[in-house]
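Go through this one:
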Amino acid sequence: VQLQASGGGLVQPGASLGLSCAASGLTVNTYSMGWYRQVPGKDSAFVAAVTDRARGGSTFYADSVKGRFTISRDNAKNTVYLEMSSLQPEDTAVYFCAAGRPILSSVRTSSAYTFWGQGTLVTVSS
């Protein structure tokens, strides 16, 4: 299984940016897919998740990104996206995608995810 995250970069505050997570070795609509982010020296933090198709593809967001970030899934491309808008300096982090089959009460818990991609750095700075 491989999860290839891409799309990070340097943007100014208020800008938008989209991240992609291309999967191989698994089918994204049969897994819950999550995005996490990590700042150096801190634990990773949940950002967003979308449940597998069997559970309706429900979406979950951290309070800090609700209304600004959108997670989506393209089954044909076997890819999960994170569209980020109104980015702020505090959104600066390495973003990771993950796949797993957590129970709904654990969908925000990183240990519930089995597969992880490499990170992609998002820097929000003027």
